Amino acid sequence: MRGMFKLALGAAAFVAAAIGALILWPIGNENRPITLAGDATRGAYLARAGGCIACHTDFAAGGAPLAGGVKLATPFGTLYSPNLTTDPEHGIGSWTVDQFARAVRQGISPEGAPYYPAFTYPFYANFSDQDIADLWAAFQTVPAVAEPSTPHKMLFPFNQRWGLKLWRAAFLEKPQSEPVPGNDAEWNRGRQIVGGAAHCAACHTGRNILGARKSDTQHFKGSTSLPGGGKAPAIDFETLQKRGWTVENLAFALKTGIRPDGDAFGGAMGEVVLYGTRFLTAEDRRAMAVYLMDDHSGG
Amino acid sequence: MKTTFLISALIAGSTAVAALAHGGATGIVKNRMDAMSNMGKVIKAVSPMMQGTAAYNADSVKRAAAFFAQHSGEAMTRMFPEGSGGKPSEARETIWSDWETFAGLAAQLGVAAQGLAVAADNGLMGDAAGTMSSDSMMGGGSTMMGSGSGMMGGGMMGGRMTVEQIGAMPADGAFAMVTQTCSACHTKFRLESK
């Protein structure tokens, strides 16, 4: 019995030490400070394309822009998008641009805590310093809302943020948004938006039991387990072709919300168009369609 | 003009158009499902013109606009009497708990459709303005974070635009005002089963 007790104690001490090490384990990279001047108009465009506004504005409840509060029910608990207004206490008004850069590109809070990957930062990792400066300038124009963010209600053990460090080590992948040589500017622009800001794969690629995208086997093959219980269809180029999509009608759908069969999007894709893609330029929507309708499996 | 014929046929026979199965719906639920299907068919018929992949025909667009207008406002809302939700209907219960928003979108469909009827003679953005982005109309889109009004403010979408304003847009822009209203309403009030 005594031996067992010692063993258990030893195991507990080991686990405690491992968790302690995890808690102290530094994550992310140091970046050069961002000194570029930002263009708020360009930043607002990127915020639209990236879904910042869609996910951090509680449209259903008539919430103020970027004041957060959108509920996201996941198998691991319930998340609420935080307040991103300029309020210094409840929003991001007291942040520096470098803290903002780290949050957006690396998913790490100013305190060094990892964010839940429901925040689609893995797609934003290739944002340039100029992109970040522009976004930051745009966020400075958002009126402050002095409302606290709703605390997340995550289940144990997912409420232990250090666990996310293991998740990052196992699953954090680079976005597929960098230019691929041999393709023209339009195709690469499409890739930059689709694989980056627009983060299409967040919904259209299935996830494993720990919520990581199965990018190697299920890329754009659709998902049946969106937060809140929705489904996203496959959008690999072969499925799109089979279902009657073309570059023209796909670019059109991203503006009008109309599918090739004449139906209008509802659900999550309705939100994507209403709060996002309809505000993009015709050129960018077309670039997205060109990329999506092409066999881009090699890149 | 295949498209013109199709739209005329749809509109002339809208009450007689054979419905799809619609999960065995009957009565008012079947009626509104048929009406939605018919609007979808008209949308599908004019979409290639709006994409520039079929020849543009202003008369077809006007007829389509009139059809949407006919189904808007009270014609739309009276097809959703209280208590008509639940299977096989795809209507969310929030239609009745947030009736004001639902009725507002139904009215907005009418405004956009009347605007489209006027805009039909403007032709497509591509014809009118060479390389100009087809977004410049909607587009101020980018300052929405600052002003807090317009896009981000009240209604879901250009809710405050008038028939005249929409009528001054290129036809494809006005058409998008119609379809974005459809999509806004589906997003808020339709259950997604597909």
By CATH, the superfamily of chain B comes out as Cytochrome c/b562
The order of strands across the largest sheet of chain A is 1-2-3
User: Taking all residues together, what is the mean pLDDT of chain B?
Assistant: 81
Task: Give the number of domains of chain B.
Answer: 1
Return the structural class of chain B: mainly alpha
Using the coordinates above, name the CATH class of chain B. Answer: Mainly Alpha
Largest interface: A-B, 47 and 42 residues
The CATH topology of chain B is given as Four Helix Bundle (Hemerythrin (Met), subunit A)
Number of helices of chain A: 13
Report the strand count of chain A: 3
Please tell me how large the radius of gyration of chain A is. Answer: 21 Å
User: How many DSSP helices of chain B?
Assistant: 11
Radius of gyration of chain B: 17 Å
Describe the sheet with the most strands of chain A: 3 strands, antiparallel
Largest sheet of chain B: none
* Low-confidence runs of at least 5 consecutive residues of chain B: 15-19, 128-158
Q: Return residue spans of chain A where pLDDT drops below 50 for at least 5 consecutive residues.
A: none
Oligomer: heterodimer
Helix content of chain A: 40-55%
Describe the protein's architecture and organization:
The complex is a heterodimer of chains A (299) and B (194). Chain A has 299 residues and is mainly alpha-helical. Chain A folds into two domains: 40-171; 185-293, Cytochrome Bc1 Complex, Chain D, domain 2. Chain A is 42% helix and 3% strand. Chain A contains 13 helices and three strands. Chain A has helices at 2-24, 40-50, 52-56, 97-106, 129-139, 163-171, 185-197, 201-204, 215-218, 237-242, 247-256, 267-275, 282-293; strands at 71-74, 77-80, 153-154. In chain A, strands 1-2-3 form a three-stranded antiparallel sheet, with no helix packed on it. In chain A, helix 4 (97-106) crosses helix 5. The longest helix of chain A is centred in the N-terminal third of the chain and has 23 residues, at 2-24. Chain A is globular. Chain A starts with a helix and ends in a 6-residue tail after the last helix. By secondary structure, chain B is mainly alpha-helical. Chain B has one domain: Cytochrome c/b562 (Four Helix Bundle (Hemerythrin (Met), subunit A), Up-down Bundle), CATH 1.20.120.10. Chain B is 60% helix and 0% strand. Chain B contains eleven helices and no strands. In chain B, helix 1 runs antiparallel to helix 2, helix 3 (58-70) runs antiparallel to helix 6 (99-119) and helix 6 (99-119) packs antiparallel against helix 11. Chain B is globular, with a radius of gyration of 17 Å. The two termini of chain B are 33 Å apart. Mean pLDDT of chain B is 81; it is low at 15-19 and 128-158. The chains are: A mainly alpha (299), B mainly alpha (194). The interface between A and B is large, with 47 and 42 residues.
